[in-house]
Design brief:
By secondary structure, the chain is of the alpha/beta class. It is built from nine helices and 17 strands. It folds into two domains: 177 residues, Medium-chain alcohol dehydrogenases, catalytic domain (Quinone Oxidoreductase, Chain A, domain 1, Alpha-Beta Complex), CATH 3.90.180.10; 126 residues, Rossmann fold. The relative contact order is 0.17. Bound molecules: zinc ion (ZN) (2 copies).
Length: 329
Amino acid sequence: MKAMILEKPGTSLRLIERPDPQPGPGQVQVKIMACGVCRTDLHVVDGDLTEPRLPIIPGHEIVGSVSALGEGVEGFGIGDRIGIPWLGHTCGCCSYCRSGAENLCDAPGFTGYQIDGGYADVTVADARFCFPLRGDLSDAELAPLLCAGLIGYRSLVMAGVASKRLGIYGFGAAAHIVAQVACYQQRDFYAFTGPGDAAAQRFALELGAAWAGGSDQTAPVELDAAIIFAPVGPLVPAALRAVRKGGIVVCGGIHMSDIPSFPYHILWGERVLRSVANLTRQDAIDFLELAPKVPVQTRIEEFPLEQANQALHALRSGQLTGAAVLRPC
Ligand SMILES: [Zn+2]
Ligand SMILES: [Zn+2]
């Protein structure tokens, strides 16, 4: 196999070759067709997330085809198209796992963080945490659904079914998928981009935004809820100021810069501020069933696997509209 590997946070990924991993009991071996580049990968590579198993192969938006089955695997056959997400393993016995909140498991394993991920041409994964992928989208188009889509969808659910006027802060991979689901659910969405990011604002309007502007601007209406995807702490008080009494602000990212202090009155009025962490398998089942009905389309920019560092740089510097996807050649 070949892979782009992280040896030390803050350094570039390095191309390596080594023997293909073989599937253990309960695992599938997967020939990788595409792997999305998520902002979380950037946080791992840059060292914002401090518990990687090193060295690690990043990547947790994996689309591939099953190439071998470990002992006892059920539900998948050779050649099946399969998706491997961020949640790679849970303990199955902690209070969270037992209460339907496996996303909060006390002893989880995350793909591309503690478990080798998809910046490679072959991987192995615990079959119980993988999903069959059907439908018309290409492998590369499907990849962003595996995290941007899933976490975006969980964030949208947490924003409340009754939230008709929805603010979205940070208009990247997750936002462009959530926006399509919001439209399908007949919600209006208001897109807040980096100040002056005309390309992202145009993209939001193309996807049906009721309004698009900079995060330094005021929304034209009072919002019922807001989802923050940009890893920018000062957006928290900005979003709290934008939502009505009883409104909900959801932080959808895994890492954020510090949140500045703010006056209590912008939280007062039973406004709710919450984060979303990881995903459950049920989120994936629900979202992957919903996506073809919308139907969710993704805007992607493809990079060869060997250019993973360039793809990460493009994401870090805000050069992407949509999602970067790596393709092993
Ligand atoms: Zn657990
Ligand atoms: Zn992700």
